[in-house]
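Data deposition worksheet. Section B asks for the primary sequence of the deposited chain exactly as it was used as input, without tags or linkers unless they were present during the calculation. Section C holds the resulting structure in token form. Section D is free text for depositor observations; keep each observation to a single sentence. Incomplete worksheets are returned to the depositor.
Section A, Depositor: J.P.
Section B:
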Amino acid sequence: MTHVPPPDAEDRRAIAPVICYPTDTLPKPDLAAYKQRRTGARKTSETRVLPREAASFRVPAGGFFRISSVEGPQVGDLNLWNAADPSERFYSGKTRALHGTHLSTGDRLWSSFPHLRPMATVTTDTLDWYGIDEHGGSVHDVIGTRCDPYTHHLLSGHDYHHCCHSNLTRALGAATGAPLAEIEHQVHDVLNVFMCTGFTRDTGRYFMKASPVRPGDYIEFFAEIDLLGALSACPGGDCSAEHSSDAAACYPLLVEVFACDDPWIPPAPSGYDRSHGA
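Section C:
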């Protein structure tokens, strides 16, 4: 601190916070209807995501996908795109503004402007018991951006090619057949699946700690639209020590896709007229 607090400093600090985006009018997902729909879904594919690698998968609108821990505690970085138009992609910042820093059952993953519609809804989360711990940590965050080779090089001076950003870039390239230089910009901020994170109370810095995930835990989503997804098994393993290196013990993740024959009408994009007052 370099400045003397004013006489009314404590009064200023004591002002009550106001929620930026009240969600009382936000349409609520019908979890009972999703549960009923899930009973008629059939498994159509599974993808094993290798440690320190990423893989892509596709989910039809009206279907489900499940991300599971299968061998050991491991976190994953998730990207989602509209399968027909990758310019519509998961918007972690707006999702955070609407639902909070960490997601669980009933929360939705919203898409980028100008669409701003639900892409997926969390229908089951076996780690929903964790809540918020004494350090302010919780699971499945939308605050971390993804480990990347640019920040790694900035801080260490070294190149590392298995950061989640690079893994996701390779997975998207393999899924689309496009050169990496052309599609890297489509890789975006993630849902950090199974990752336990928060902000330190003294400095407000982003922290991570050992994930509580264990083999058999999973998080499942309903696909509101046709999805192309990519998941990276983070080089940080359970993120108890570090990421962006080969030091941590890492394990695979499993993605299972379930389709449903019942018809589904995807949610419409935002009704805003896009005139922007011009």
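Section D:
The chain has one domain: 29-259.
The mean pLDDT is 97.
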